[in-house]
Amino acid sequence: MELFWYIVLMTMLTIYVILDGYDFGAGIIHLFFAKTEKDKKAITNAIGPFWDANEVWLIAVGGVLFFAFPTLYASSFSGFYLPLIMILWLLIFRAIGLELRGQVQNKMWEAIWDKAFGIASLLLALFFGIALGNVVRGVNLGMVTDGVSAHEPHYFFLPLWNPTFSPQAEHLGIIDWFTLLLGVIGVVALAIHGANWIIFKTNSKLNAKLKKVVFNLNFVLLALVIISLLIWHIIEPKPFHNFIQYPWLWVFPIITFIGIFGLFKVKSFQKDGKGFLFSSLFLFGGLTSTVASIFPKMLPSTNTINPDLTIYNVAAHEYGLQVGVYWFVIAAVLVAAYMVIQYKVFKGKMDDVGYGEH
Amino acid sequence: MEDMLFYDRMQFAFTITFHYLFPQLTMGLSLMIVYFKWKFLRTKIDKYNDAARFWMKIFALNFAMGVVTGIPMEFQFGTNWAKFSELTGGIIGQTLAMEGMFSFFLESSFLGLFLFGEKLLGQKLHFLTGFLVFLGSWASGYLIIATHSWMQYPVGYEILENGRFVLNNFGALFSNPWLMPAFLHNQMGSVITSSFVVAAVGAFYLLNNKHSEFGKLFVKTGVIFGLISSILVAFPTGDWMAKNVAEHQPVTFAAMEGIFETEEGGSEIILIGQPDVENKKLDNKIAVPNILSFLTYQSWDAEIKGLNEFDESVYPTNIPGLYYAYHIMVGLGTIFIALMLIASIQLFRKKLYKTKWILWILMLMLPFPYIANTTGWYTAELGRQPWLVYDLLRTADGISPTVSSGNTLFTLLGFIGLYLLLGLLFLMLAGKIINKGPETTKLN
């Protein structure tokens, strides 16, 4: 049962990253590359009818985490207190940036909400990357100092940073050079992903330029991924032990690299959706490879006193997990149906949807 | 430690109070938009569709505010109430996860279609998407109140040795006797808010002599919906709720009614007075004898236990707050019924649109259903204190063990600043939409 809900949770998380990821990416592109009013309109039209439903995946991920793995939910949400609340604030700015911009026709009003939308999207991509870094690196569970736990073994609290910014320091911070690297990967990967979505869903004049942007950023992404793999062993002494034990898991890293290398051909793609497909593969592969490397851990412990949080010691009780399967299957079928309807109605190019013209 | 509990409670209270200003309008207004749309489909009169379109603009803005302030609610269970989440997540996580899966996806997927898809979908399908948005928002209310009901009246659980609550009967979460009365009472409260808002905007147009045709439609619709919901919120749903509290939480009942002494021969109902908890008495009392006994048990001399019968350790934490919240709610509810009755009579006599003093009152009443809904929730929540799970888990034992009070104060201040901004923006933009008024179009 734990394994079932773990797979459900990770699937939902991946869907969230792929879907809201293109919204964040579109925000980053909007911030740096959208110069004219037409460019901006194209971008907001491309994500306008979707971003809200995409954000619901985050709420659903939170809900399933709460219900299936309540100890992990309690431990990680209180331990990562400050960045989580800041993510909430940023989500608010992203949303009102998008929704309020079109409400008043005034250049200054529009400029404020354009920046709110763009900057919040950028920081969200950065924060989510940093969050992934924290999960991989692990935390000082039980807040052990000198071999003594200050709290119950599954609780912890991290400040935003420590003075050394080192992932190996005794007192860890949320932002260190390792987690920051993953944050930057998040920004670059989602910028590519968002650009691909805009190319896919619009006939904007921006598209030709965005193809070049994707091509160039893809080099940066490849370099950052290689660097992160080279230093991975500093964080995790045996990064590949799961892959050695279960060789079929290599399929995930292979998908990741298919995604990256596929994108180098972005300039010659005939179909506009192809780039989006490859960046989705990259995100899917990258995320699954990362969690596969630490499985069955969900939050590793950096001390030797308290055990890692794994899918087995943080899960809810058996009966609840079983009964949840029934309603979840029904709900999942419904959600799939909604998505089919939604994307069917808004299929093809979105240039004329008139988002924000209330 | 005391500070931590205080800041955690303040942050939750502040964020949920602000948040619930929006969903109460969302739920009620979705029903009324569906009504306008349905009326348009039946009569083919364009003004109903224009009315639906106009309220959709307010709805979209309001919905966005509800969404952005709603996500912090789900996160805060984990960030600020980690111990509570850990101990009860196996149970309340069920209903909260179901809310995400069943209602938020429904609402958000079809809201996009509803707002941007009228041309693409055609009128009938467009009506259907509106109906689905309504269904999603009410399902969300239902599942949240299922969660709330479990905290008020825990069912279907067992407690393990390590203090964890585990579910042993899923069906019990939904057959909880607390759930149906609370859900219906709350939904009627939300329809009251939307009817008063629609009526107030209509009255504003009539008094201003602009968009008069819409003004009449809004006043009429608002008054009819308002009359029905104001009556239903009191009877049977409110009555049913009060009886539930009297039966299952007698100390809460005594506190919210302001009853200190158990009176032989039946208890009076307190209309006005200030509780003096230190000296266990009520100052400046205006009361009507025996009514409370009759309302609660349909018997003039039924015994109602006063606060003095209970040990102080089980007293609600804030008795005066609870008492005022309850009395403000009930007092406003009574005023709502009276106002809507008078307005309905004038409507029936075809004089309402010219009766200026009623239109003025309808317009100025706009904030009060929000106050009534908020104080109603304060009654429920303060009534449950000092418990998170009634009689089983104390609020003080539910907070996050590792988050310092300084961190919580930091985020509380942040939320206050940010929500102040959101509130101002909402008022400004809603005012702009209302001032501009509905646009008339020709479809037929």
From TrEMBL, chain A:
Entry superkingdom: Bacteria
Protein name (database record): Cytochrome bd-I ubiquinol oxidase subunit 2 apoprotein
Record membrane topology: Multi-pass membrane protein
Organism: Winogradskyella epiphytica
Positions of transmembrane segments: 6-34, 55-74, 80-96, 116-136, 174-192, 213-235, 247-264, 276-299, 319-341
Compartment annotation: Cell membrane
GO biological process: aerobic electron transport chain
GO molecular function: electron transfer activity; metal ion binding; oxidoreductase activity, acting on diphenols and related substances as donors, oxygen as acceptor
Predominant subcellular localization, coarse grouping: membrane
GO cellular component terms, A-Z: cytochrome complex; plasma membrane
Protein family according to the UniProt entry: Belongs to the cytochrome ubiquinol oxidase subunit 2 family.
Alphabetical UniProt keywords: Cell membrane, Electron transport, Heme, Iron, Membrane, Metal-binding, Transmembrane, Transmembrane helix, Transport
Cited InterPro entries: Cyt-d_oxidase_su2 (IPR003317)
Signal peptide bounds: none
Pfam families recorded: Cyt_bd_oxida_II
TrEMBL record, chain B:
GO biological process entries: aerobic electron transport chain
Membrane topology: Multi-pass membrane protein
Membrane spanning residue stretches: 12-34, 54-71, 91-115, 127-145, 188-208, 217-235, 323-345, 357-380, 409-430
Major site of localization recorded for this protein: membrane
Keywords from the named record: Cell membrane, Electron transport, Heme, Iron, Membrane, Metal-binding, Transmembrane, Transmembrane helix, Transport
Subcellular location: Cell membrane
Source organism, top-level taxon: Bacteria
UniProt xrefs under Pfam families: Cyt_bd_oxida_I (PF01654)
InterPro entries, A to Z: Cyt-d_ubiquinol_oxidase_su_1
GO molecular function, one term: oxidoreductase activity, acting on diphenols and related substances as donors, oxygen as acceptor
CC per GO annotation: cytochrome complex; plasma membrane
Protein name per the record: Cytochrome bd-I ubiquinol oxidase subunit 1 apoprotein
Coiled coil location: none
Family: Belongs to the cytochrome ubiquinol oxidase subunit 1 family.
